[in-house]
Design goal:
40% helix, 70 residues, two-stranded antiparallel ribbon
């Protein structure tokens, strides 16, 4: 299971912004995805970690079979 920020329509964003204004709070929308992490070799994992450090984020390698449409 993986969660990431949701891709919302303009109408959905408008609804979220209205509720944010009403509450006086910032809201974040996350969606869940059923995916499986890929098995990486030590060399591959090292390359992923290097790029994570370089760009300041977390990367997750996914098994292509677990991605819908793949």
């Amino acid at each position: 299971m993986l969660s990431s920020l949701s891709k919302l329509t303009d109408a959905q964003i408008a609804e979220v912004r209205k509720l944010e204004a009403d509450l006086g709070k910032t809201l974040l929308s996350f969606s869940r995805y059923d995916v499986v992490a890929a098995n990486l070799s030590e060399a591959e994992l090292s390359r992923v970690r290097e790029l994570e450090k370089k760009i300041g984020t977390v990367l997750i390698a996914l098994d292509p079979k677990s991605i819908s449409g793949a």
